[in-house]
Amino acid sequence: MFAQMMTQNEATQKSLEQINKNKESAILDQQSALLDLQRTVDDIARRLKEKEQAQKVQPE
Question: How far apart are CA 13 and CA 53, in angstroms?
Answer without folding.
Answer: 59
